[in-house]
Specification:
This protein has 241 residues and is α/β, with parallel strands linked by helices. The protein has five helices and 15 strands. The strands form two sheets. Strands 7, 8, 9, 10, 11, 12, 13, 14 and 15 form a nine-stranded mixed sheet that branches. Strands 1-2-3-4-5-6 form a six-stranded mixed sheet, covered by helices on one side. A hairpin with a 4-residue loop joins β14 and β15. α2 runs parallel beside α3. It is globular. The two termini are 32 Å apart.
């Protein structure tokens, strides 16, 4: 099987003619606004970046692996306005769009264009790859996939200099695991929205119940530019809900 490949300096995964992104959190600016922080919408920028990748790589299928929207329990005007427009733009250059629902996607079907195929957050399988967002345990049927792909974690790695000053960098993680006699491999995706912070995997572990259930055997961390950091052990830090 051709292994899904992260695109260089992008927060997107390419497999054949399928492009995968996650954690766009459209509408995040409205949460910041409530805190007195005013930032113009970054949705158009994200829409263009994804559209450019769809065109460049002649992608026939776009998979959004959870958290297309941000505000819960109710959507803001921004989501109602920008999400349908984003989907319309992407459908101009690709044949199909799939959304694996995330914990922020409640009620999104009310205004999501019907052209988008919506899947339960616990899993969707395509071409031997299992996709799940990560806030809920994946369906057992997903474990016969050749590789799993998960979002939700917003992974970063903290690197410290000789003085102990640390900086966080967004990253990809390739994890080999075992669970109840099952061996598998999972790719942990970075969040697509650049406004969002991240969880330091070597300080705070991973988000979601999946990582509480598994035993990590190998863990390779890559920066967005493809730099391999090797194993950044998170085995001794707590996994967070």
């Amino acid at each position: 099987m051709e292994f899904p490949q992260p695109l260089w300096n992008q927060r997107a995964l390419l497999y054949g003619s399928t492009l995968v992104v996650c954690d766009l959190h459209i509408g995040y600016e409205r949460e910041l606004e409530k805190k007195g922080i005013y930032i113009t919408s970054k949705t158009d920028m994200m829409v263009k970046d994804i559209k450019d990748m769809l065109v460049q790589h002649e992608v026939g299928c776009l998979i959004i692996n959870g958290d297309l929207k941000h505000n819960i329990p109710k959507a803001s005007w921004q989501e109602y306005e920008e999400i349908p427009r984003a989907v319309d733009e992407w459908l101009k250059v690709t044949d199909e769009i799939h959304l694996v629902t995330g914990n922020h996607d409640g009620g999104i079907e009310d205004y999501l264009p019907t052209d988008v195929k919506v899947h339960d957050s616990r899993g969707y399988k395509r071409d031997g790859i299992g996709y799940f967002h990560g806030h809920a345990r994946p369906n057992k049927g997903l474990f016969d996939s050749e590789v799993l792909v998960v979002g939700h974690c917003h992974p970063t790695v903290t690197l410290e200099d000789n003085l102990g000053k640390g900086n966080k960098f967004h990253c990809w993680v390739r994890v080999k695991f075992s669970m109840d006699g099952i061996k598998g491999e999972v790719v942990v995706m970075p969040n697509f929205n650049p406004l969002l912070g991240g969880v330091s995997i070597n300080k705070n572990g991973y988000l979601g119940p999946f990582f509480r259930d598994i035993t990590i055997k190998e863990e390779d961390v890559y920066l967005l530019d493809g730099t391999l950091l090797g194993e950044i052990s998170s085995k001794d830090v707590p996994h967070r809900a």
